[in-house]
Design a protein that fits this description.
By secondary structure, the chain is α/β, with parallel strands linked by helices. 50% of the residues lie in helices and 13% in strands. It folds into two domains: 2-159, Rossmann fold; 181-328, Rossmann fold, CATH 3.40.50. Helix 1 (11-24) links the parallel strand 1 and strand 2.
């Protein structure tokens, strides 16, 4: 049996778990290709006009998988991974949107309801409903998720050693060790952004690699310890409703206080409601603390040259500021 997994949204956070789970069950896992302009155009045509870019991209990836020889497409309903917090409503309604808007999708979508108390979503009870369609037993599912959990925990451990999600994924799934970063790093930037914005090369235009080529060390939220991030929000009277938005905001607050972080870049997709709130909070606090902060808002029309120019100017500004401070000291 062939299971398709779209290379979009939380693929960049949970793919090691899901891939291991399905392959241990005896399924063949097929992932859609990297996001291209043509794929995005197909997704745009299949989406309502005012939806955010990541969902348009997801629709394009699902359409690509529907055109391939897969038996099912795995698209879980992501509801919650922390008590009292939730995913964006688009995530919760995503399986229904896809099933009833994309031709041929209705009977091909596997969508377990994911509701957990932590980032670890490998509780076998969440996946039992898929057993009949996959022709496997609850015991099979439990044993396969146990293997998936091991791989995902290793993925998270490696991420926290300052490797990107893609580097950690290559390591745990294919044994590829990432190349070492350049050692003579003068600038460290905290990069805020959801994994599906930062690591989709069409959305972020390879911002991590661009920064690294400039001699910049990049830190993202998934490289940081969850418990430490959680403490960063203790001073808030009320947390945000959305778990991954809280992770970004917590990382942002840590970046603001950390003297080793020279500046902060926030990558956000146009039309993201939670990000509009996070961005404003960061703008206010970064100005108070004198920490360089820049928002890069991308949509399907964003130009590569525009992005490159802004990044170069931001890095150059930080470098000049640091150089001046070193000379005065």
């Amino acid at each position: 049996m062939k299971i398709g997994i779209p290379r979009a949204l939380l693929y960049y956070y949970y793919y090691p778990l899901w891939k291991t789970f399905f392959e241990t069950l005896g399924c063949e896992v097929i992932i859609s290709g990297k996001t291209t302009i043509d794929l995005l155009d197909k997704g745009i045509k299949a989406s309502v006009s005012d939806i955010c870019v990541p969902i348009k991209i997801l629709n394009g990836h699902v359409l690509e998988l529907l055109e391939s020889d897969v038996d099912y497409i795995f698209l879980p309903r992501m509801m919650s991974i922390r008590k009292g917090e939730f995913f964006c409503p688009k995530f919760m309604g995503l399986p229904d949107m896809v099933r009833h808007s994309l031709p041929g999708a209705k009977d091909k979508i596997l969508f377990p309801n994911i509701s957990s108390l932590s980032d670890d979503i490998s509780d076998d009870k969440l996946y039992y409903d898929m057993g009949q369609r996959l022709g496997v037993t609850d015991k099979n599912i439990k044993e396969s998720l146990k293997e998936g959990r091991k791989v995902w925990n290793e993925f998270r451990r490696f991420s926290k050693e300052d490797y990107t999600a893609l580097e950690a994924m290559d390591y745990v799934l294919e044994g590829k060790l990432p190349e070492k970063q350049v050692e003579d790093i003068n600038i460290t930037i905290g990069l805020m952004g959801y994994v599906y914005d930062v690591y989709d090369d069409l959305v972020s235009m390879g911002i991590v690699d661009r920064l690294r080529k400039m001699g910049v060390k990049v830190i993202t939220f998934e490289m940081m310890d969850e418990v430490m991030l959680d403490r960063e929000l203790d001073s808030m009277k009320k947390r945000l409703f959305w778990t991954f938005s809280n992770k970004l905001l917590a990382a942002g607050y840590k970046f603001l206080k950390d003297e080793s972080i020279d500046g902060i870049i926030h990558v956000t997709a146009f039309g993201c409601g939670p990000d509009s709130l996070i961005g404003k909070l960061m703008e206010i606090d970064s100005e108070k603390l004198g920490k360089p902060f820049m928002t890069i808002r991308v949509d399907e029309h964003t130009g590569e040259n525009h992005l490159q120019t802004r990044i170069e100017a931001f890095v150059d500004m930080i470098y000049r500021k640091k150089s001046k401070y070193i000379k005065e000291a």
